């Protein structure tokens, strides 16, 4: 059950499960959120947009509940809409199919006003009942939906006085952001009768779908909003080979590719027709220590290892500089209410040696790694080994097979390399792997006081108070947790120069999946 | 006294004596069935031995213990491996490969499309590569140890020494990125016309031809050279036949058996072994389909793909054997 698909598959379900919230539509009527180069001109309509994407397989299914991987992430956002979207720059919730919402004082009952002017691709009217049925299908205990875990705290979904009302088992100020998840696109009657039809309210209608090969779309002429879906048709070609994607882009066969490797960026930049699209995100690369397993149950040993890693070297050499330094807590400034002013931990062999001696540990520590953990994880482990050696700490690096890494090593062995994709909110970030009872508590960090802080923050509607709690939590994880977090990695994609209006969305990769509805082609 | 067993045994002996070719073919067919059965057992066991089953791999992060248990019971994964194998075998015997666990689509239908694509690619690679290899082999013998022979040798060896993905990348770099002369990616789909399809597969076909050419060419050359040293070739030369004519009329037929063998081997490779080329050129063939299925332990798909691959391999080898027997009457009467 702790099995995670390998990273080579592209963005896995793991990245996306809870991670898609902090996104939304940049292209507002006022142009308020548009990036600089997009401000320069107004969207042009027309053309056939071609995307060459990694992260699709013959096993993909159109049912949004079963979607996983980058390709289905983008496909879902082409034909479907979620109730709530998120701001690409701040991550705040923005109206989607729900035009507004209100919460009860304790944030446990939420009322959403659903738009009345929206029709599905088949011409039928989208109603509150469809939204209710959609959420019910995904939150049903017997559902296989990738969003099931997100919706666990929901106890009631119903239509009341023409509105959608959601009741939670405890207060959660972040509920609207949970509804931005890409699995939760609204389907006629929730997709209960026909989950695989891809009939939704999105900017494009699906024409053709061949799993793991190609999908094509044409513009939805009855789209309920006019600030998106600028091209006439979209073609998504599954290209899992890194070199094939680069060849397709540089020869002008596609307008956009995802997953550009850091080491090829410099070469790709030289191509006259290509622009590199680098977007700051929330995902990170890390080394995990189990706080309840010897010798890592000793905080001095954990601190010794935290001081013994050269973060800058890993940023420069493993991710090619395309990222930002981590500080041993799993949140960066892309999260709403992110902590501020916590001192950056730096490589310090003296302090490392001091804490190592204080821990009383004798001998070496075994670090398991694999290319499945994150791209360059083996190199990163060796860099770690080198920098630790200067502090007198011996690290034995053991390379594990990629197949089965997520079931046999991660969350099983006491010291290993790993990665996490972003989560929409700090609450979900900590709830996924720092709550004592969490299934993926991959550092075995179990503290009652920390759990209480998390639950208090969750129900707190006052942002200033919440932020203060999150600040304290970050410091606890940084100084006492089992997480060594050298870098947050950027999303690296590339497009042709004729691709305009690309929105750098902090929510997730590929403009948070909204690339096709946001960009246009400049002939 | 004759027991029933000995009579039937004698019957087989008589049949085999009267129809030597037919009985050899029958024998091989029976052996092939046995082999296919063994292959299916091995694939089943192999998937079972991989870490993580379908339920846990497929659910990934949303895998709660209850969800895993539910999928397991839904798919019958909680039953014993023998029960599951027998169930699957029962379906496969009647031609029902079931539905993919991951996408819920019919395996037979999906494989039909993918297999069609693979055969399409292999067919065009073969009709270019086989005549080219045999022709070049003949030429090399005709100009043995002279410049053409050496050129052919060096070039084909160079091509076979490069890994296939590298040959693919080179062709892409030259013909797509630099000159923009060829179509890329080579994705084919239903609504494509035949001409578009042919256009799309030019580069993968070229790659495959380069990869298999040297092997077949060199085998042709070696086999013919061996025959050339025999007495009847000297006679042919003495009675005044031209060199090329002597090779084609007298040497080639006698060198056929080993050539047929190596051609069959390469044909099998063209169908079952080209997953790397499929990935590089983004071609939706069987190989990619099977690899995707293995990743999530989608057993019905893997089993069906494995069986089809094995059947193609066995079938081609058997065809090669039969053709070799036809080409060499001595093989028809084993002692």
Automatic annotation (TrEMBL), chain A:
GO MF terms, alphabetically ordered: peptide transmembrane transporter activity
Domain Solute-binding protein family: 93-441
GO BP, sorted A to Z: peptide transport
Any single GO CC term annotated in Swiss-Prot or TrEMBL for this entry: outer membrane-bounded periplasmic space
Entry-linked Pfam families: SBP_bac_5
Keyword Signal: yes
Subcellular location: Periplasm
Keywords for the protein's UniProt record, in alphabetical order: Signal, Transport
InterPro entries per record: Peptide/Ni-bd, SBP_5, SBP_5_dom, TAT_signal
Membership in a protein family: Belongs to the bacterial solute-binding protein 5 family.
The protein, known as: ABC transporter substrate-binding protein
Source organism of the structure: Roseibium limicola
TrEMBL record, chain B:
Membrane topology annotation: Multi-pass membrane protein
Protein name, per record: ABC transporter permease
UniProt keyword annotations, A-Z: Cell membrane, Membrane, Transmembrane, Transmembrane helix, Transport
SUPFAM superfamilies: MetI-like
Compartments where found: Cell membrane
Keyword Lyase: no
Source domain of life: Bacteria
PANTHER family: DIPEPTIDE TRANSPORT SYSTEM PERMEASE PROTEIN DPPB-RELATED, PEPTIDE ABC TRANSPORTER PERMEASE PROTEIN
One Pfam family, short name: BPD_transp_1_N
Residues annotated as domain ABC transmembrane type-1: 115-320
Transmembrane regions listed in the UniProt entry: 29-47, 119-139, 151-178, 198-216, 255-281, 301-327
PROSITE patterns membership: ABC_TM1 (PS50928)
Gene Ontology CC entries for this record: plasma membrane
Family to which this protein belongs: Belongs to the binding-protein-dependent transport system permease family.
CDD domains: TM_PBP2
InterPro entries in alphabetical order: BPD_transp_1_N, MetI-like, MetI-like_sf
GO-annotated biological processes: transmembrane transport
